[in-house]
Amino acid sequence: MTDYGHELLFGTFITPTAQPVHQAVELAVVADRAGLDLATFQDHPYLPKFHDTWTLITYAAARTSRIRLSGNVLSLPLRQPAVLARSHASLDRLTGGRIELGLGAGAFWDGIEAMGARRLTPGQAVSALGEAIRVIRAVWDADRPGPVSVHGEFYQAEGLKRGPAPAHDMSIWVGAYKPRMLRLIGRAADGVLPSLSYLEGGPGDYATINEHIDDSARESGRDPARVRRLLNINGTFSQFGRSFLNGPAEQWAEDLAGLALEHGISTFILATDDPATIEEYAAEVAPAVRELVAAERP
Amino acid sequence: MTHPVRFGALVTSVAQARRAEELGYDLVAVPHAPDDGDDWTLLTWIAGQTEKVGLVATGLDVARGEPAVLGRAAASLDLLSGGRLELALTGAHLDEVTGIVRGVLDAGETGPLRFLGEHHRVPKAQRGPLPAHRIPIWLTGNDQQSVRLAGRLADAWVADLERITADELATAYKQLEAAATEAGRDPEEIRRVLIVGPGLSPAELTALGADTFLVRAAELPGLSAWETLRDATGPIIFRPSSVRAKRRPGIDYDGVPAGLASTAVEPGDLDYARVRSTYMRGGAPGLVLRPRTTSEVVDALAFVRRHPDLPFGLRSAGHGVSGRSTNDGGIVVSLAAMTTIEVLDESRRLIRVGPGARWTDVAQAIHPYGWALSSGDYGGVGVGGLATAGGVGWLARKHGLTIDHLVAVEMVLADGSVVRASDSENADLFWAVRGAGANFGVVTSFEFEAYDVGDVGFAQLVVAADDPADLLVKWGRAIEEAPRDVSGQLIMGPPRPGQPVFAQLMAVVDNDDPETIIEQLQPIAAIAPLYQQNVVLTPYTGVISNAAEGGYHQGAGEPVSRSGLIEHLTPEFARAAVELLASGAVHWFQIRTVGGAVADVPAEQTAYAHRSANFSVIVMGSSKQRVDAAWAPLTAHFDGLYLSFETDLSPERVEDAFPPRTLARLRELKHRYDPDNLFRDNFNIKAATR
Asked: Where is the FAD-binding PCMH-type domain (chain B) (predicted)?
């Protein structure tokens, strides 16, 4: 049993398809009205079938009123840390604090390189992400005197002006699976965001994820509870329970409550582009998981 | 002056942007986001909360990221905002950045973008997404180098009257013109954007020589004082010389009638990528006219009449296999904007539909009334092409062809006259339209009588085809013996070495009782061992909502497709069909069911006359020569063909499509309605000679 005591959040993972043009925005509106907590979008700037994710997030933010939004996750190699910091802070101020920063070290290097960015080794990518987080936090730290000063191997931000600060204490959630990145998250990030479909051993792999993060957090003097545990999930609503996240809403709720209580996972982001599924997830699953988890918590 | 005068407002909040939109400003320009925020984010936020005003961020520093990513972001914002974006760039190496951004936005160009500059290298980026309109790129900078760069590359050059005197501005405009001329451009192509204070009179503004004024004011003024400047210049379509250079010979581009000019697309236009090709056919037409009303169709046909030597294609939704709805260097009249679907008389289930609507849209629109209308097997097919040829669809055996429920049309004839045709008005034309419509005119609206259809059974089965000839015969027999509720199709591919041979069987049962559905499907499912089965109870919309949404056709090359109508799937036909499959010449072999209600209609009642057939056979391949050779042995078994799936242009195919008496009558009518053969590009019926 692991529980970090986080408030439970439920979100959607919406394909940022550029055709039909407004499909992704309309799904975010559906999620907003249905009462979900989060609308998130993947980021693959080398693929023209998708919208530019930041532009889409901003436009969707303008068309929704309550839901929080983030990348899931934004591709750091094709996004400047200082621009990420300022753009997220700007939108956070415009939306009254509805924005979080989902960040990834880069996944498809052929595509990244094809767009003109530099190919990094996995080790370099982890270091670059660590430097990026320092730059981002330094830009957000608007009240601190003097300019930003980060001398990294990958990012040099010397004399960069600080600000704006986000409207709320914005989280940096990082997509990660491997020990080095997980340790970085334990030291420096506010959340870990893997996809269940990439966990080779299934949900049980989350125990290892937690172990790396928790150890690293403690070593650097942080409370492991400062790192939110998120998970992208896939599932199918069906009349009779057949397998994990394939069954009626009550079965989903039990499956997810199990993950929350077993591994301390507190944010479940469902990949779907179907409005009815979004609505059912919001109306039937989310409250039931909250209830089941609340009953078990001290 | 070439460009109409526009007014923009400098804004730094959504409230100011909305105010500018209310006041009628053409543009809102974000000079910088407050508190060192991000300009692009603020501009996108404004885009999401305004409706029609143009959008630009005048201080966007290109150092914010890879130029290729900036190009994608620009395309996204332009798409999301409905084509309202203009892109102003500042910073270093703007020549390279502009090249990369344009390269990404030019999604209609073939091949990936490769740009190897001194400062920016893009090894192999995919292009796109295609923006909603050609995004003008603005450059800035008062120094001579910047001005010259703008003259060479930009769509607009921006100056700020707080930072430049009127005299310096005049000099800069001369430099701009000179640089443009040196680069082989028409200097008039470049818009002159000027940031001004609120107090200037129309005369003062005119004297400055700019065409776009961005007003900097704490309290945004109304536009009434400057209205005269805007009235003086009407909206015009402006095509830079780079666009005009791609025009094709023999087309009177400047003579396109005014109403059509605003929506016409020529080869250099951004929208060309969206309209040049069809679902299965690559094309390069010289001009695509997109009428929105019947009177614009009249104008379009008048224009086409003036170009008798060019190919002329008529397109509804561009799905057609046979239809020459694109061409090379000719004119296409696209009816895609004529998508009205309306109920005329609920008690008679009478609906009126535009030719550009797609069948999935028709199905969705009439589903709430409990009605349906059988069309083809794919929802992305347009109304016009199908409803002038036949319409062999998922409910054919129960309800007949689509044309069997057509009660009237409005159409534009070759001479430009607009007529109505039905059983009681122009009855002979109405007869001809139902099967040979493409030869007689442009139908601008169809009136159909729909029918009640509840939930239907939709079965998708995969069966073993170890003895494919036997399977064909058994399936044919099972279909012929099945109640009329059942319509469907069979699909087989060429045999592949080392893989089991199978066939896909699909069927729709027009009955909402699950037990009856299973009962009616049972004899079909029993013809061979089942590999897979999936049967669902669904509204008809669930069967026809299979069209891809969004996007545009990107067909390439020429499809090769042959069609034959056959009464029974005899063992002799089946053996010949199996040999055809074994030849490897075709990659698609499909048999659709007709018969039933289709055969209830007397052959002489419509121009579609081969009513006795129970099956429509379709093959597709890539080599015309090989497909024709493999198809030849089958032809003895056929009685007629269905034009919509035939691509062979030999005159004999017209004789296959129409029995002699039908064809003779069609030729008489062609002589009467289209003696000069305006409608010539698809299975042309030769006018009877007198």
From this structure: 280-453
Residue A58 placed within a domain? yes
Mean pLDDT value across chain B: 95
Which residue on chain A is closest to B114 by alpha carbon? A114
Q: Provide, as residue numbers in chain B, all residues whose Cβ is less than 8 Å from the Cβ of A52.
A: 69, 72-73, 75-77
Mean pLDDT of B453-475: 96
> Which domain does B652 fall in, by range?
456-662
Does residue A198 lie in a domain region?
yes
* Domain region containing A219: 9-296
B353 in a domain, yes or no?
no
Q: How far is A90 from chain B (nearest CA, A)?
A: 5
Chain B residue numbers touching A20 (CB-CB < 8 A)? 549-550
pLDDT in tens, B301-325: 999 999 999 999 999 999 999 878 9
The verdict on residue B136 lying in a domain is yes
What's the pTM? Answer: 0.91
Number of domains composing chain A: 1
Residue A2 falls inside a structural domain: no
CATH code of the domain covering residue B215: 3.20.20.30
A275-280: average pLDDT = 97
| Per-residue model confidence (pLDDT) at position B690 | 66
pLDDT of residue B236: 64
**What band does A74 get if pLDDT is binned at 50, 70 and 90?**
very high
Task: Provide the ipTM.
Answer: 0.98
Number of domains, chain B: 2
Q: Which of the four pLDDT bands, split at 50, 70 and 90, describes residue B1?
A: very low
Q: B-contacting residues of A 22-41, CB under 8 Å? A: 22-23, 25
Tell me whether residues A115 and B37 touch, CB distance under 8 A.
no
Instruction: Report if residue B580 sits inside a domain.
Output: yes
Token pair of A227 as six digits: 């790192």
Q: Which of residues 31-90 of B touch A (CB under 8 A)?
A: 33, 35-38, 40-42, 44-49, 63-69, 72-73, 75-77, 79-81
Q: What CATH number has the domain bearing residue A216? A: 3.20.20.30
CB contact under 8 A, B79 and A18: yes
